[in-house]
């Protein structure tokens, strides 16, 4: 249970001193020079899994490619995913694209100007909706992210588990009950304090503008807060990956439209219990009726938020088999260009960039290089 029993005087410190500090200390960020909800939306989605300082070049590149909601809506989804390359969690790019299309189709290309409408759009949850509504439209709603949960837990000396959805709801309601008129600035100030001063490790309490009201600082409990109980362990999955090569080209498949890395290009991959390359060989049989025996080239591990892939990687070289099976549609003719369709592609190494290959797979290219 969130403990926010702090008196009016302390609330005033939080409101007034924090805003004064923010006015002077806030970082000059490209999306802070505007109140345009489109730019704020893009930056907030990027900031969900990426540090602000890291995302700036990605943000600038994305905005250069898609300067308006119309340009985003009209772009092919592959182009949007390509522009998102390097940021990970690609479902965010898909949701942006889908939401842009809805905004153009249903809202005449204007971002909805209130929290209730914003959170109907794909990829916009209570945090992002609160951030856009308060920063762009100054609607009195909160935007509670990890930084805010930490700052408020420490300021109020609350030992409630911040991983518990109930705590987040209570904190959201409590912040909304104390929001000053400049709601957007206040939300941003809380986030900025969490990012710059009230950091997870070694908070800079001596520089903190709200230290005089901070209850954990007074109680000496800052190091114990916030409380976040451990989540259940990530599942580990044993996988086999097949890298099919021919004429210096590599074979790729598009992943299903739902689930992990949905709709992205990858090397063929299957879950396995044995791990001797036969499961991936069987899977590849869907595209290549005849294949040589798998050649093991190494292992790789990739950690997602809820799952870990332990991958054994096998190479299948088709060069020696062309003459027997050259009529198969996936084989590259000796003179012709690599064939591809919407779901599969043969690509030469320099063309791989076009595919926006997820890191889980692009890092396997080093194994292939070492095997040559
Ligand atoms: S005094 Fe320290 S613990 Fe309290 S809000 Fe400031 S930085 Fe965080």
Automatic annotation (TrEMBL):
It is an enzyme of class 3 (hydrolase). Residues 46-196 form the HhH-GPD domain. Keywords: 4Fe-4S, DNA damage, DNA repair, Glycosidase, Hydrolase, Iron, Iron-sulfur, Metal-binding. PANTHER family: ADENINE DNA GLYCOSYLASE. Belongs to the Nth/MutY family. Gene3D superfamilies: Helix-hairpin-Helix base-excision DNA repair enzymes (C-terminal) (1.10.1670.10), Hypothetical protein, domain 2 (1.10.340.30), Nucleoside Triphosphate Pyrophosphohydrolase (3.90.79.10). Its cofactor is [4Fe-4S] cluster. CDD domains: ENDO3c, NUDIX_DNA_Glycosylase_C-MutY. It comes from Acetobacterium malicum. It catalyses: Hydrolyzes free adenine bases from 7,8-dihydro-8-oxoguanine:adenine mismatched double-stranded DNA, leaving an apurinic site. Binds 1 [4Fe-4S] cluster. Adenine glycosylase active on G-A mispairs. This is Adenine DNA glycosylase. It comes from the Bacteria. Its EC number is 3.2.2.31. It holds the Pfam family HHH.
């Amino acid at each position: 249970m969130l403990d926010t029993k702090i008196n009016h005087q302390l609330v005033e410190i939080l409101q007034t001193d924090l805003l004064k500090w923010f006015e002077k200390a806030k970082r000059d960020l490209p999306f802070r020079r505007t109140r345009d909800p489109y730019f704020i939306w893009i930056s907030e989605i990027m900031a969900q899994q990426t540090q602000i300082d890291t995302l700036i070049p990605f943000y600038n590149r994305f905005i250069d490619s898609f300067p308006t909601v119309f340009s985003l809506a009209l772009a092919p989804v592959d182009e949007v995913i390509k522009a998102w390359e390097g940021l990970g969690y690609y479902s965010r790019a898909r949701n942006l694209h889908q939401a842009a299309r809805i905004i153009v189709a249903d809202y005449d290309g204007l971002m909805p100007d209130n929290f209730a409408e914003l959170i109907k759009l794909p990829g916009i949850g209570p945090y992002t909706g609160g951030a856009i509504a308060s920063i762009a439209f100054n609607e009195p709603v909160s935007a509670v992210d990890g930084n805010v949960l930490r700052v408020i837990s420490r300021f109020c000396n609350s030992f409630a588990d911040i991983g518990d959805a109930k705590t987040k709801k209570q904190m959201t309601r409590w912040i909304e009950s104390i929001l000053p008129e400049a709601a957007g600035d206040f939300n941003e100030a809380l986030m900025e304090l969490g990012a710059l001063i009230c950091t997870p490790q070694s908070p800079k309490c001596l520089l903190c503008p709200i230290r005089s009201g901070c209850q954990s600082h007074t109680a000496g409990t800052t190091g114990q807060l916030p409380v976040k109980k451990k989540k259940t362990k990530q599942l580990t999955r044993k996988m086999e990956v097949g890298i099919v090569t021919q004429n210096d080209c590599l074979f790729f498949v598009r992943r299903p439209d739902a689930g992990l890395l949905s709709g992205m290009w990858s090397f063929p991959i299957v879950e396995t219990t044995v791990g001797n390359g036969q499961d991936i060989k069987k899977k590849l049989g869907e595209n290549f009726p005849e294949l040589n025996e798998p050649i093991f080239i190494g292992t790789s591990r990739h950690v997602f938020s809820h799952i870990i892939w332990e991958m054994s990687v096998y190479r299948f070289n088709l060069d020696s088999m062309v003459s027997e099976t050259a009529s198969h549609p996936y084989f590259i003719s000796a003179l012709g260009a690599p064939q591809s369709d919407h779901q599969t592609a043969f690509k030469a190494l320099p063309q791989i960039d076009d595919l926006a290959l997820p890191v889980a797979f692009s890092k396997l290219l080093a194994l292939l290089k070492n095997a040559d």
